[in-house]
Amino acid sequence: MLFARLSFRLLSAVAALGLAGSLSAAPLKIGVTPGSLADSVAVAAEEAKQVGLEVQVIEFTDWTTPNTALASGDLDLNYFQHQAFLDHAVTERGYTIASVAYGLLPNIGLYSKKYASLDAVPDGASVGVANDPVNQARGLLLLQAAGLIQLKDGVGAQASINDVTGNPKKLQIVEVEGPQLVRAADDLALVQGYPAHFVNAGQAELASNALQYSTVDDLYYAIRFVSRSSHRDDSRIRQFVDIYQNSPAVAAQIDKSFAGDAKLYSLPWRSAKYASITQAP
């Protein structure tokens, strides 16, 4: 169950007073990807409107364009990625963008429509993992935690299928587009996935019944609010993040969307832990 401080309206009102005149009339443009994250941002946008902050929520159907649009100035903020994904994007494309605040930490799970336990998964079964480098690593680490594979020592968040050193069940590891893993569960013995993706696909009963979940305190994979490095002190961003982190309505939407398998995080604004792009808050 998510808990939210009831003082979010006061925080928002105080932040609103601090808006610079040149920014107060400009809507805050936030990029999201469709689904549960977008739903929670939409709730926060309605809360923001009540205290005078206009927010435009812009949906993107892929995981590349939100960072490109942010870096080019078409967005003020985006909210769809964890630190591992952000680190990879910055390294690959040279974006001058940075995490400014935590949002929520969605667990991932190992899901099966065919088997009721990990022990029941047969030798040689096909297992689906995300095909992008960052989410694939998280899926492989979860398979390792479940005792199904062994990875090369020290690979951590950089793990790929090439780093599998032990596979006692001789599982066939299949790379699947991240958003398609829910559908792949119809054909594969086991898939990694986010509970919210199953909720969105009308399979809420499966969302809360993973055979194995990730740990609830791995904040490297918490979804972040990300801005251009030069705009991290934009008071509109601070106001919106305060609303998102402290609104009971947002917390309720997250509980609904993530079937209870996500936790909302709040840290003091711009704490020292946000000092580095490559260092998770």
TrEMBL record:
The keyword Repressor does not apply. Keywords: Lipoprotein, Membrane, Palmitate, Signal. It is a lipid-anchor. It is found in: Membrane. It holds the Pfam family Lipoprotein_9. Residues 1-25 form the signal peptide. InterPro entries: Lipoprotein_NlpA. GO terms for cellular component: membrane. Belongs to the NlpA lipoprotein family. This is Metal ABC transporter substrate-binding protein.
